[in-house]
Amino acid sequence: MDSSFRLLVYAIAAVLFIWLFMGYIAPLFFPGHDPATEIGKMLEEAEMVLGRGKSNKLLFNGGSSFKGKSFDSPIRNVVFECNSASLCCPKGVSCNSAIEWDERTILFQETRSIETTVRCNEEYGISTCKVYFGNKPAQIGIKSIEVKEEFDLEKEKPIIGISVENSGSQEMLQGSIEVKVFQVVEIGHEPKEILLSALTKTEAIGALGAGKQKEKEIELAIEADGEYKLRVRASGLEAGSDEKIVSLKTTGSTSSCTASKCNSPALAAGKCIARCYCTGCVLGTDCVQKLKEAESNAVGLTTSVDLTDAENYILGSNIVEFVLPNSLC
Fold first, then answer.
1. Is the distance from CB of 223 to CB of 280 less than 8 angstroms?
2. Is residue 158 a contact partner of residue 130, using CB atoms and an 8 Å limit?
3. Both ends of the chain: CA-CA distance in Å?
4. How far is CA 205 from the centre of its chain?
């Protein structure tokens, strides 16, 4: 045998031996931490980053088993899923594979080092967590967001470009991107973020293979000048979720939003209320701003009424109620 070829064979054999030793032999003689304890730690970490999976390779001894209730708490519910065709029996079925399982019980029939992933979401104040054994599940993430700092509404509509990726080892079968728009306004000399529910956009992105990326452009129906924050959330079926926040500013609006009139202050439920109206406003926050900027007598109020720092409730894009001192009623 040629010496160079012999060296190549030896090198391949050495690499194979090291791989077998590290993956299957060493764990038997140098066991790591107790897997139940490790899963408990992973659950705590996953609850801190909802929608994002936490993965680790854990050694499970043959004959060991776990129940979901062992990891439950008053504010957490845990279920299992075995997702490797080569390791897992069908759900709820006994077989000769390495793992028998159902949603609340898992039995390891062989001593194996197994990829384990924990992911949590929150529903009605309860953490709903799933522990995956075998393969890393699909995991959607926001890779990047491209958006200009400022848009001139007279020339263009705000558009946001979003790139998502699947960092898991399984296909995401279905996904979507949701963009919520918040207008940043000053109330009582403090900046507040007001959700503009009517401007929320949700776009389907379909399936996404393991390790693949996809880009999506979303046009936003913002028609008023101002500063905005966009909360972008990508989510997928059995693929978790990811969320990022970006900001933008708009100018050049052709909106004809103007303050119109206010009713005389009157007591209602123990509070002095002045209901005011605007015309042509797209957003209730714009109506608030126009009413605060207007002279009191221009909207039918006495000069003693100052709306600048008054608490307010937006009832519609052109209707706002202001809370005034009771002495004005």
1. no
2. no
3. 105
4. 15
Distance CA 164, CA 121 (A): 19
Is 140-251 in CATH node 2.60.40.2550?
A: yes
CA 258/CA 199 separation, integer angstroms = 21
Cα–Cα dist 156/175, whole Å = 28
Q: How far is CA 243 from the centre of its chain?
A: 4
The residue extents of the domains of the chain are 25-133, 140-251, 258-328
Mean pLDDT by 10 residues, the chain (329 residues): 58 60 53 84 96 96 95 96 96 96 97 97 94 97 96 93 97 97 79 86 96 96 89 97 96 84 92 92 86 90 89 89 92
Structure tokens at 63: 């004959």
Helix (H, G, I), strand (E, B) or coil at 154: coil
What's this model's pTM, rounded to 2 decimal places? 0.73
How far apart CA 247 and CA 230 sit, in angstroms, is 6
> Contact, 220 vs 202, CB < 8 A?
no
CA distance 11 to 256: 77
Q: Who contacts 115 (Cβ-Cβ below 8 Å, separation ≥6)?
A: 55, 57, 133, 134, 135, 136
In eight-state DSSP terms, residue 328 is G
- H-run or E-run covering 131: strand 126-133
Region class of 206: left (phi > 0), else alpha (psi between -120 and 50), else beta:
left
Q: Name the residue among 5, 54, 57, 66 with its Cα closest to residue 33.
A: 57
| Residue 225: closest CA among 247, 253, 200 | 253
| CA distance linking residue 132 with residue 239, whole number of Å | 12
Query: Could you tell me if 290 and 278 are in contact, meaning their C-beta atoms sit under 8 angstroms apart?
Result: yes
